[in-house]
Every structure is written in C-alpha cells, then in structure tokens.
Amino acid sequence: KQEVTQIPAALSVPEGENLVLNCSFTDSAIYNLQWFRQDPGKGLTSLLLIQSSQREQTSGRLNASLDKSSGRSTLYIAASQPGDSATYLCAAFNNYGQNFVFGPGTRLSVLP
Amino acid sequence: ETGVTQTPRHLVMGMTNKKSLKCEQHLGHNAMYWYKQSAKKPLELMFVYNFKEQTENNSVPSRFSPECPNSSHLFLHLHTLQPEDSALYLCASSPGLAGYDQYFGPGTRLLVL
Fold it and tell me: How confident is the model at residue B55 (pLDDT cuts 50, 70, 90)?
C-alpha cells in the first residue's frame, strides 16, 4: 500500500528566501506525482504534475523534481513571497490504482 | 461558471438529518471524485466515478451515498452522520483516470452536531 509523507510539517521563512519542500513515497511504481497548494479552508490548486518518465517540471518560481528510485520528490520555491503562504501537498498516482495518495502537507508561512 | 463548483459551502446538520452535497464541473471531464479532509489527517479518497460509473469505493460507511447522474454532476447524500464526520468535503474532476491532472472545487465545510 502506497504511503506518502512530507517533511517538514511546517516551515516559516523570511520573504525572499529560497526553500525546498520534501515528499517521500514508499512504492516507486508510480504513474505520476502532483504538487498542490491549499489555502486555509479552500480547495486544492494544482501546481505541477510530473510524469514518471520525467525528472522535473518548472512553472515560474516553482520547480519540482522526481526521483522514483529513491522514492522522493522535492518542490523548490525561489524568492519566496508572503503570497506563497499556504499548505503544500504532494500526491502520488500508482500504476495499479486509480487514485492519488496524498501526503499530509507542509504548512508554509512566508513572513514579510 | 467555470471550473468545479460545490454547494453549499458550509453546512451544519444534526445526526438525524438528511442532506446532500452537490458538485458540478464545467470542464468537460469524464472522471469525478469525492474526498474527505479532516483536521490533521491526509486527504482521503472516498469515491471515484468515470463516465458516470462508480469505479472506487474506498470502504466508506453506508451513511454516505454518492450519486452521479451524468459526467458533469456529482452528489453526496448524507444521513445519520456522526460528529466525527465533520470535515471539509472536496470534489474534484479530471479528463479521465490514470493520473490526469485533478481540478478541485472549493469544498463544503460540514459540521455534524
């Protein structure tokens, strides 16, 4: 059974700092991995989707990498801004399943 | 309206009430999902529908009853809920299964008294 963990659970950084969020999964037989952002009490917004054949995806100040062999993905946020404050979730989609397994999330606070 | 919409946004109900949550997607997608998000727990998949057919029931208690009349609408009928069912219920849609990008609605915040 796939399990997804995220470290750290919470992170507080000053504005302008570059930061890395970590996601680990136990079963490397994934179809793809997706990063989401969730603002308090709101739904999820998709940030990046990495197919299993890809190593990374980039969108603006965000870069996500995927290493299937080690069961890890990282989300790199460059030049963080207060508007980046949110909970970031990763989710792994298994080859044999029909759904994403979500991690518990990392709650990010970017201080002005 | 665009994207995925959910109504109501907030709901308070007693344990003996019957209520329904509604989700509608305007993206032309074929797959729809219900998720439950409780405090301090990862997002939990409840049900998956693909082309109106239920393809996944993730061991959800029978007091939750989904309905998918067409590919654009998804309902979650609630009856005799328990206080521990209080949570944020999220609906999502995707073009198909097999790990397509999922688009989420804003959620319904449910409180069971």
Answer: confident
